[in-house]
Amino acid sequence: MIIRPEQHWFFRLFDWHGSVLSKITFRLLLNVIMSVIAIVIYQWYQLPSGIHLTVAPFSLLGIAIAIFLGFRNNASYSRFVEARHLWGMLLIAERSLLRQLLTLVPQAPETHRRITDYLIAFSWSLKHQLRNTSADVELARLLPPEVRASVEESAMPTNRILLLLSGEIGRLREQGELSDITYSLCEDRLNELGQVLGGCERIAGTPVPFAYTLILQRTVYLFCALLPFALVGDLHDMTPFVSVFISYTFLSLDSLAEELEDPFGISANDLPLNAICTTIERNLRDMIGHYPLPELPTPDRNYNLT
Question: Are 178 and 186 in contact (CB under 8 A)?
Answer without folding.
Answer: yes
